[in-house]
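JOB MANIFEST
job_type = single_chain_structure
chain_count = 1
residues = 294
[input]
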Amino acid sequence: KLAFICGLTGAYAVYAEELRKGVDLAVEVINSKGLKIGNKNYKIVVQAYDDKTEGQTAARLVERAATNDGNHAILASGGSAIVKANLSVAQRLRFPMMPLWSQVDGVYAAQKGDPYLFSGLPPFSFMYREIMALLSTLDKPKVTTAAMITPNDELGVYAGKQYLPTDLKMAGMKLAGVEYYPAKTQEYTTALSRVRRLEADCLVVNALSADAIGILKEMQSTGYFPKSIVVESPSGLREPFGDVLNGMYVPIIWDKDVTATRDDYVGTGPEFAKLYRDKYSKDMPDFVAAIGAH
């Protein structure tokens, strides 16, 4: 029995729906192929919970899933701030858990060599590293400086003060500045005005989709588009912007065209994309379902 705990409502819902589709698809394939442990065959059953994108709710549901509902494994929450609330529960119960999506390095470092919370995703400190290295090689346009706009929350502070400065230094680029806007608001105007005055060659929009959409719309309305734009999360952006997104850079963790790696159950990128299309009668909007499946 597998517990799926995520923000099916709240700020993370745009990701949770696709994550759940990926988990359900992978479980369906695993059950059809057979899961053998020792000499016994098993079927996986998924029990879903809605943590409402709230840390306290997530921690409470994790404890319930582990102690009362008979789950043998837990996929617990999306978003590092929410997942961090599960850490103390995992440690106290000594119950191994894997977040659906959590990349902030500090979430895991806090376990101090006694881990019960694990991630299948690369740490966020690597999120922009290869993109900055790529941008530094461009000639037309020449990109030598970068700025970031990000919410003033834990991930934003990590990204602005540690991750991006390190990536830029490694790429031989300079940090023009980081502008923070109040977390859980739509007050981007002041931060955007300040970051625009920095006149950086590249703008990194370090924000989840809901905020990224608002920021990009405001950039559209003011005609602010620097030489290059990097967006943390592409989920849900295609619908409101269409071809405006062409030329923007996005860090991706999985690609539907990659055939060099293959999972024993869901296959290569093209194979998983076909499984998704066959089950849900549409193409994948992004790579989020693949993260859930893997």
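[summary]
The chain has a mean pLDDT of 92.
The chain has eleven helices and ten strands.
exit_status = 0
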